[in-house]
Amino acid sequence: MIRFSPTGTVFRVWRRFSSWSANTMPITETITDTFRTNELDPMNHRKDHDGRFYSISQSVKKQLFTGGGLPKEYKELSETLNGLSIMVRKPAIELITYLNKTNFDAPVTRYVLYGKTGSGKSISLAHILHYGSNAGMVLVHVPWVPNWVRFPKGCTPSVIHPNMYDHPIESVEWLRHFSTQNGLLMQKLELKTTETYTWSKREMTAAGSPLSELIDLGMNRAKYATDCVAALLGELKKAAVSKRCRVLVVIDGFNAFFSPRSKVQREDKSIVLPTEFVLTDAFLSLTRNDWTNGAIVVSVDASALPLELRESPLPRYQLGKQGFEHLDPFIPIEVPNYSEKEFHSQIDYYIERNWLQQPKARTDRGRAELSFTSGNHPLSLMKLVAPY
Amino acid sequence: MSLSGVLRKLPSFNAIHCHLNFVGRIARQQPYSMYQPFVKEPTYNIEKLEQLIESGEAKKREFVPVKAARSDQNVSVFHDELTSKFINMVMEKGHKEIATKLVETAYMKIKQMQLAKYYKATTDAERAEIELNPIVIFHKALENCKPVLQLTPIKRGGATYQVPIPITENRARFLAMKWMILESREKERKVHFPERLAYELLDAFNNTGKVVKRKQDLHKQCETNRAYAHYRWG
């Protein structure tokens, strides 16, 4: 079957094997469609996989993304289309190439993904998360920072740190998310604490006790959960430097840490800044380049900040002075709109999965219309295709 | 084509600035259209236009005045006239964007529900039976909801009788859409309009559900009032 794009490039779409059932996502069988790839391990994704979809199994999806990481609409769509498939795109390929060639004896490199809202930053981060999981790195993943800043479920003033605020519920959730993502790996690594943590007169975690004990304490005692998170991040940093493990830090919406306001108010109704959260302090300490044997991948998005600060998607504007000075020097990686190849690949995927139903829309004229009206913008395309 | 030649010249006042005194008179005496009777509807479907050009019809229509296209008449591959009409009926207070969003969300939900069935089906035969295109489902659902007769009140000897009379195509389509929208606007509102509309459309597609029942009740009433059918002619 030969199909032409509006510019005249020829795509050849092969017939699928008749044994392929529409029920199961093709994982083991050979796929010869131009919009898919057989390569299911992100560690091997290279330039020639650009614009192709690779499928992620249910078990990996459950392990990595139960606590968040995939945007809500994308996740729902993947459930409707009977399986999670991520498009391999240039930003992720670039990051994977860098991560494969990193000298882990040097101080950690910070990578900042930037781009318009809805251009695919969160999905690229999800791809990198899968890479880190396959590469045996300990994943420190914050799915969406604005959830802590804009919709906190009950901040309490911190006991240990004066004038700072705890997130008891969010910290428990995060520790649960961490243990789901890194459960098996942590069992294998058997990391131990390097110092004693005193929680109260009777409760303490001695030096040399396993890290899993620290995590369990945090999950069971919401009062100390935030400080457990801070302690855990400190321990992971030390463990990375002493080469007991390799750490990959992935944070989505990092610029929310430097937002000019949050939803938390003191008794006198004055607004608490995100920099006054204990969690912020912990993650900012982790994203400093004063440790080795790790990598930090962060995204900045306009939708992470209030409405009046969404003029530009660029990192310097989104991070603000404080954020920029914290992250500088970093490697900025742009996540652009779809290229022509990626666009056609996305439409092919929607057609194959029976999502784009309108017969006229599947023609070249339909593709040209969708490309024009969406501007090749991933989120706009998803919204345009959704009803039809 | 000059606008003044195309627009209807209504007597003794400017069409745009009309006195309230004259409105009632206009409503009773003249139709609303601001166009003169010979002005044609626009053809905005690209395939139809190409056909007209090929067959030579286009040449004949070169100097015929044509009405301005409405803002929802477009050449998009997603354009569907019936859906446009339906969106107009869903719309309240001129909020077209909200109405479009509601109907489009309903279409998306229809797709989601049908795809769930599709991916659960095990045989090719089962999959072939499941209709996935929401526009096709919408058209079939409306067809299933259209009544073939309607009742009209006719007064005879002091009593008012509900008399069954034939129904025009436009009226039938209107009633089907109206009932569909009314059934989707539940009193309790826990399940929102798009989701309810999706369920109603799917039911009507399968010839079940509240709207089809309403049509069938109307038909039954017409059947029971068959005796009065001659009242139509006095």
Output the number of helix runs of chain A.
Answer: 13
Rounded to the nearest angstrom, the distance between the terminal CA atoms of chain B is 49 Å
Name the biggest interface: A-B, 20 and 23 residues
- Residue ranges of chain A: pLDDT <50 for 5 or more in a row? 1-31
Main sheet makeup of chain A: 5 strands, parallel
Distance between the termini of chain A: 24 Å
Beta-strand residue fraction of chain A: 5-15%
- Main-sheet strand order of chain A equals 6-11-12-5-13
What is the radius of gyration of chain A? 22 Å
Determine the strand fraction of chain B and express it as a percent band.
5-15%
Across the major sheet of chain B, the strand order is 1-2
* Approximate helicity band of chain B: 40-55%
Q: Could you list the spans of chain B in which at least 5 consecutive residues all have pLDDT below 50?
A: 12-28
Note the run of SSEs of chain A as H and E. Answer: EEEHHEHEHEHEEHEEHHEHEHEHHH
Rg of chain B, Å, rounded = 23 Å
